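Risk register update: the risk of archive-format incompatibility is retired. Evidence:
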Amino acid sequence: MHLKKHIPASSITEVVIAITVIAICIGISSMIFTRSMHVTTDFESVKMQTELQSDLWKQMVLNQQAEAEEPITVEEDNDLLNDSLKVLIFRGLNDRVLWQQHWLKNE
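Archived output:
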């Protein structure tokens, strides 16, 4: 028995468009997922900076000895790669670098 049913061209077009829309949605969602998994912010670095700023605030502004485990010293240096930047280096015990902050020079 032969199948003598014809498929109209409009239904084939609808199927192709539907598959294309589904493929685009899956592609966009996979791009969003992969970008969200590769976050550029290092949360350990943000945590260290927040703790450092808190300790500096206590030491400099409130004139109190911070309750930090180690005293913090601040050194100012010029950036070797960019003449318009200066570098503040925050050091702890044993001259260990805790944080480096780059600032624009006010000249």
